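Support case: NAI complex. Customer-provided input:
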Amino acid sequence: MVFEYAPSIESTTILKLANRYQHFIGGKMVAPAGGKYFDSLNPATGEVVAQFAQGSKKDVDKAVQAAQNAYDKIWKKMPAAERGKYLFRIARIIQERSRELAVAETIDNGKPIRETRDVDVPLVASHFFYHAGWADKLQYAGLGDKYSSYGVVGQIIPWNFPLLMLSWKIAPALATGNTVVLKPAETTPLTAMLFAEICQQAELPAGVVNIITGDGETGKELVNHPGIAKIAFTGSTEVGRIIAQSIGNTDKALSLELGGKGANIIFEDAPIDEAVEGIINGIFFNQGHVCCAGSRLLVQENVAGEVIEKLKKRMSLIRLGNPLDKNTDLGAINNAPQLAKIKELTQAGIDEGAEFWQAEVNLPTTGLWCPPTLFTGVWQSHRIAREEIFGPVLSTITFRTPEEAIEKANNTPYGLSAGVWSDKGSRTLWAASKLKAGVIWSNTFNKFDPTSPFGGYKESGWGREGGRHGLLPYLKSSVKG
Ligand code: NAI
Ligand code: MG
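Agent response - structure generated as follows:
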């Protein structure tokens, strides 16, 4: 029997969109010095969501000055418990406006409302709540009482989790007493501008948070501004490298959260049905636009047949389509260059001889889409086993012994995440001790919590975000006396 789902479309009336959004500088909405604006699109329809200010050197300069002013005159001097109160207030307003933020994120990013409503926005609020609690307890962060803030922090974030990455950046920076200039990604600036409104609503002192919209050029201006004490970046390894090089001969501090090629390892004693759900969540959550996605499936050879058969059945049940439909599992691909990259790598997988399979789905006629895709018979040398695809495409590799699984899992320039599926705690702990990955999930995947540090090994980045460890990149050790 086939179940048909009646559409259940989330209403968008809660979201009052402006035609144009300005920069947020010194507590005010400020028109761009160059007078230029760019469009952000809804990737599910191709329609323009709104226009956003294109940030130039002058805008960045103004924002850095506003942030420095707020740091010197207000934020640095404020008792820590007072700083915490602002973070609590922001967290509560995010909860109050959660439905509006979820709708805005879905429209601007293309991700399903089920995820923005149940994952992104609740995590954003919990990030602010968690860091609000830290503001007056920083002496327990690991540096004793010998710490100080940096000053003005420049933060650059990607499009895959726009508001969530904003919270990962802004919450710890403010809790530790820094002020910020943040640049959202050019395809997803909307929720950052709603966050600017939330800062006003919370009566956050002017200049503590500044938001400049624009593209990579705007990002470069921020990175190279002499008034910035520290840069925090999440995005591609390529841009992370450029940033590391360009500030190499300055005394700016840097934290980077970059790409990944996470291994999801299924041992023969794994609970297979649960593992299949975990594989689905590992690669199809957020259209696979996830740096810690379980994009390499490593399956023990003697259970591979059963796993793949069940996986194909489960993939066929994934509902792709209108991200505002509450039934939708897989939304739109965020932007056209990303879809082109996914297609190019998929073709490379076929050309190099891996076995290609796609779930049968009717793709909508407008917008950017990619069906759930599975490759089996993948070799370590194939590009689809080595390069980050950042889409709903899974590469399957088999192994015979646990040692071989670890060797294959670690054979990557990245090291952000891994998953281990096994019935035996001893095997899971053994595997976790050998895997070179910042986050290792046991019998689950893609679970996030603000109390848990997140970050990578090797080309996946420097520094941690979340938990006590995530405070340290925002604190300078200042030995007194
Ligand atoms: P990207 O790294 O170019 O963009 C991320 C952010 O950096 C955006 O805000 C962008 O405007 C800014 N930026 C770009 N060039 C810059 C520069 N020279 N200086 C300062 N800021 C700059 O990522 P893109 O092009 O959107 O995606 C390309 C690939 O990167 C994806 O296919 C994926 O593999 C990976 N990626 C990884 C992410 C992660 O969470 N680790 C997030 C986004 C992309
Ligand atoms: Mg957009």
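The first strand starts at residue 20 and ends at 21.

Case will auto-close in a few days if no follow-up is received.
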